[in-house]
Amino acid sequence: MFILTAVKDHSEVFTITQHMSREQLLQLRNTSQFTCPQCENPLRLKIGKVVIPHFAHIVINNCLTSFSERESPGHLKGKQQLTEFFARTGCEVAVEAYLPKIAQRPDLLIQQKGKRFAIEFQCSVISSEDVAKRNQGYKSINLPSIWLLSTPNHIHELSMGISYVKLSKFVQSFINKHQVTGATIITYDTTTEQFVYISQLMHIGGTAFVAKVLSLSVDQQTFPFARVKPLSIPDRQRYWHIFQQKRARYLRNRIFSSKFGAQDRFLKQCYVQQIRPENLPLYIGFPIEDSETIQDHLVEWQMALVCGLSRSKIDLKYVSKEWIEMFTVNHCKVFNRNKAVEVVSRYCEFLLELDYHTFQSITHQPMNQINLFNHFHKLIVAKRCEN
User: Fold this and answer.
1) Which residues neighbour 222 within 8 Å (Cβ) at sequence distance 6 or greater?
2) So what's the pLDDT on residue 384?
3) CATH T-level fold of 5-150
4) Which of 5, 233, 254, 321 has its CB surrounded by the most CB atoms within 10 Å?
5) pTM of the entire structure?
């Protein structure tokens, strides 16, 4: 296991930084003794040419179980860079500090103006259960946790600005929501020493999102972290354009991508409604807040819902929570059932605002494009600027 912090000569805590030269470290190895700050057993200072300098237990013992995962060189490098960043912003920083009450060791434990934070720099894929377990541990001792994800490789290929991005469920688990900046993931790139923001996330189907991607060098970053500005009018129009473009492409390809042929539920619904998929009105497949919790594409579950309302002959004004829950269970693959019910309820409210009539066919619903854009605008902007 790679360790960056040790007790030097049984007296002082010593942390390896990225600015220490090989010669300095060789001198230290020859003149000092190092022990583990947790188990107090001897550590060896390793100074190789492949992995960055680090400590390792001479004898493997149970102390290693307090480290949550085997660390990569990139993880070690990130911890070094972030240590120096937080110190520069006026924080007291402890690297790999062991918290005995919860038997956890955050990558960094920082303190600013009397308030402590656990910092986790996540480079490898772990389960959502592991993330929740660690957060629960920090919560039990009233220690706020901040997770920084290592910038995913495919994000490097995107141009800065408004982009179409695909995010795995693992990456999505790091989404934080704020009134002004909306749904945002803050990542850190050890190669460029930049914080990369994937902000104003808007889900448009499956693992696909529209987002504003921006980078900020470690020298320009602050703590608390800088926030991105609200979307400008051209930004909003770009979101609208990408949403329509990607939705239209999905619908054009939908017939050819089906694995079920004539038994495909979505295509059968289009047939009953006497409409080709690519001609579906924009309110079907419309972005809804938190819709990423439903695994089905927006078009699929929203089409199922409007057809279900029509078959049940339910006026939107009187649709019950029980009906929505039943629909969600029977027609949606979900990651979080309660949140999915909220999403479906929001879509029903959206249809009600559009004056959608469940007793009329899809092709006979008068929908104004400007009205739809205004709803889209409210989705990506209005809730972000309330404070």
Assistant:
1) 89
2) 43
3) Trna Endonuclease; Chain: A, domain 1 (3.40.1350)
4) 5
5) 0.83
